[in-house]
Design brief:
single chain; 4-stranded mixed β-sheet; 15 helices; 4 strands
Amino acid sequence: MHESTLFNIITNIGFFKSYTITKIFSIWKKNVRYRNFLKIRQKLVSDAFVAKPTFAENIMEINRCLYDLQQNKTIFSKIGDNKTWEKTDFNYEQDQTRKQASGQYESIIANKMTVVVRKVQNEIYDKCNLKDVDDQDEMKFGQQVKQKPMNLKRREEEEKTYLLQIANRDRERLPNFVRLVDYVMIETLINISHQSMEILLEEMKKERKTGLFNIGIKEEHMTFDPNEEELKENIESTLKNMIEVVKGVHRIPSEVRLGNEEKQEKLPDIGMIISQSVEFNRVRGDMLEKIKRDFKIGGEYIDENYQQVKQMFSFLNSFQMPNWEEGNVTFEEIRQKIQKFTEWNSFIKARIKDIAKGCLNINGIKIANKLTSEL
């Protein structure tokens, strides 16, 4: 009676009241998770190329080819030097780098990756034709053939059947393998493009003693050369050409991708993938914003320091030497002008010089040299 009372009290406690249901649910949950694990493991065993002897070694070779692709960026390596670039020199270096990178891409894909894929195809087709070869051996009439023991012959037949089944399954996986190679190649080219653009953006943001782009100053109106819009257009063109390099790379030939299948396969558009990607639009926006901000700072510097330069050029353009030679000016005027020239020369030496404003290197030395010589 006492034990029955204790049992009734315990079973009214929440933990013990739902213990049986909780335990059953826990066992069911573990079984479901284990069955899911078995399904995933079996799927990996069936589909994972790295688990298949026919594909595993060739996957590693494809990985080495992709590593070689990544070593060829579409931005020239000299951009990391602490150097200021004229627009024409910058574009020339970019053109040469893109041509070299494009040649490397074509060489690696055509001479290495495509060769590996063809090798896998030939190996699988040869294994699938193993039974045909055996049938031809049995058709050799007139030749003395030594009979094998029945048990050995049975084991050989079972082994051949097993190998043929593996070969047929590998042949079914072959289109997916080729598609995988093609897609990882596309992803690598896209990553190369994004990395190259990131390198250019980082160099534009980097603190330098001299700016990345050399910007001259037009004497007539004290405006930049190239100006903000011209530099933005040049950067836009650089990014577009980077995309065109990877977009124009020839893919694995269609007869290799599709084998003997008579169908058209729609290939991913690398250019569209890059141009619509979040990374590209972020990098492009940061570059254009950086240029806009640096030109604004540079413009404020010009307004503050180059006002007297306008006066100097205005004086030099209106200066008439014959009036001075004929004595049509007073001694006081001469003294005032010489004093003004001295002040201007001091101002030029102190204020008119090359200076970095963000990614811009405002070139004041050219104007300073011209003004000094003429004054």
